[in-house]
Structure formats: structure tokens, C-alpha cells
Amino acid sequence: MSPKISRCLFPAAGLGTRFLPVTKEIAKEMLPLVNRPIISYGVEEAVNSGCNDIVIITGRTKRSIEDYFDRSFELENLLKSKGSIKLYEIIHAIASMANFMYVRQPEPLGLGHAVLCGEPICRDSYFGVILPDDVIKAESPALSQLIRVHEKLGGSVIALEEVPRSEVSRYGIVDADVFDETEGIYKIRDMVEKPSVHESPSRLAIIGRYILSPKIFKILSDTEAGIGGELQLTDALRRLLQEEPVWGVIYKGERFDCGTQDGWFAANVKLAMETPELRRIVIEAVKNFF
Ligand code: G1P
């Protein structure tokens, strides 16, 4: 049996230009999704999938991520002394849920480069990758669904979702054969990053969850910059396919795309509507507009 997946890498060094001006000095990953930073949803998903080492790739303006996942003794002591025990427990639990490690990506050279920055920590075994923009609500954590496929079939695994044809150019798209229809597992034949509608091999898009072979590092280190002048993870995965199997799995869950202002705003409203104490407030705030 393959060793347990215990590490999960979070690329979080992007400049967040789609959210300017708010992201001029604030990390996009720290924007709130209801009452918690976007990245905390992904970190909890990784922990609930069995990962206890969380590796975050950061850059300038990202220090608040490190502070968020660190202990805050002053705050904890204050809450305890005031008898706010419930809040104290919530705050205390944030830093104790995993081991947090950080690597700086000096320049935003693309997702592939961000993953490559994690090599010193992740080079010994298969590891998870979560793109924090893709928040996934699921009964069984999305990453754990990929881990199950890896444990059963070996090799690397990527999360897939069928998207409308008009949206294919926003994603990595795969060319794949059905392997297990009931489980939604595909054997990947090829993939292409952000194809045009005409070039797209299918409507099966890569979503921000991966189980990667450590072989990816060697490949990334000699892959040329691809579309957008960035080092693309999809281009390296395409080469990995020639060395070992790469599986795709249609994850079961609901995705909230927090990578754009529209998506993030809609995610806040939808999640608030699903939170009993907030649902009434949202309805009250908008009812006079209809
Ligand atoms: C990245 C990947 C792409 C994938 C997408 C999922 O693109 O490069 O293959 O489909 O995440 O969210 P980005 O959204 O960073 O441009």
C-alpha cells in the first residue's frame, strides 16, 4: 500500500489582480467568506482529509496568512480572562489543527512554479495540492475523494467537473477515457491549459484539487513557460502522463469559485443563505428591492 498522503500544498502567492484595489495590500486568500478567510476552508478540507502538514506558498502582502494560522497568545489570554470560552476555543483551534510551513515564491511565475517552490518539503512522496480559490462544500472532503482514488489505483489524481462549453477557456481541460462510470473515474490521455472552444478536447475541466507524484518536480524544473508566459502545472502533468498514470475523478460536492469578484460575492450570499442566523439578515436586507 502507498504511504498515507500527509502533506498538502497551497499556492497562495498570486497578486490577486482581479480583486484590486482591495488586494493592493491584503492577501486575496484572507478575504472573508462569511466569517472566515477563504483559505481556511481549503486548510480545513486538507486536515479533514488526513493531512497534518500544510505547506503554503506565499509572497509579498501575504504575511497575514502566516499570522492567521499562528497562535495569538494576547488574544487567547484576553478571551479567557473575559470568560469568552467558546471564542477562545475557536481561536486556539486554528493554530493547533496542523503543522504550518511557508515557502516564499519570489515572483509570481505561474501555478507550476508555485508548486515547484514546495519541492524541498514535498519531494519524498505523493502530496495533495489545493487551490484556495476553489472552495468545495462536500459531505466527504473533496481532497479525500482524490486520496481514495490514489489509494486504490496509485498514480496522480486530479479533480474534474463538467463545465459549459462557453467556459472551457478558463480551465485546464482533459481528454480522457471513462475508467469507472459509477465512481466517476477517468483515465487521462491528454490535457491542455485554457484551450479555445474549438480546440477543447472535452468539457471536463480540472478543478483546484490534485494528488501529485513527486516526479512532477523534476518535470516542472525543465518545462518551458506556457500560455500567459507562466509555468503551467497542466503542461507538466501532460508530460507526467508519459511516465505514470494520471486519473481524473468527478468530485461530489458544490464548488464556490472565489477566484473572481462575482464568484466570491455570490459565494458569500449563498453560504450566508445556508447559515440559519444569517439567512434572515440577507432576506431582510434585500426584500425591498423586489
Ligand atoms: C488553474 C489551473 C487550471 C485549472 C484552474 C482551476 O488556473 O491552471 O488548469 O483548471 O486553476 O481553478 P487559474 O484559475 O489559476 O488560472
Q: What are its keywords?
A:
290 residues; 13 strands; alpha/beta; binds 1-O-phosphono-alpha-D-glucopyranose; two-stranded antiparallel ribbon
What does this structure look like?
With 290 residues, the protein is α/β, with parallel strands linked by helices. The protein has 11 helices and 13 strands. The strands form 3 sheets. The protein has a 9-stranded mixed sheet with strand order 5-4-1-6-11-8-12-10-9, sandwiched between helices. β2 (32-33) and β3 form a beta hairpin. α5 packs across α9 and α8 (215-221) crosses α9. The model has no long low-confidence stretch (mean pLDDT 95). It binds 1-O-phosphono-alpha-D-glucopyranose. Residues 111, 131, 134, 171-172, 193, 205-208, 233-234, 259 line the site of 1-O-phosphono-alpha-D-glucopyranose. 1-O-phosphono-alpha-D-glucopyranose is lined by residues 111, 131, 134, 171-172, 193, 205-208, 233-234, 259.
Could you give the order of the helices and strands? EEEHEHHHEHHEEHEEEEHHEEHH
Beta fraction? 15-25%
Class of secondary structure makeup: alpha/beta
- What is the CA–CA distance across the termini? 58 Å
> What's the Cα radius of gyration?
19 Å
The largest beta-sheet arranges its strands as 5-4-1-6-11-8-12-10-9
> Largest sheet, if any?
9 strands, mixed
- The beta-strand count equals 13
| Helical stretch tally | 11
Please bin the fraction of helical residues. Answer: 25-40%
Shape by Cα distribution:
globular
Q: In terms of per-residue confidence, which ranges show pLDDT below 50 for 5 or more consecutive residues?
A: none
Q: Compute the average pLDDT.
A: 95
Identify every distinct bound molecule in the structure, by name, code or SMILES: 1-O-phosphono-alpha-D-glucopyranose
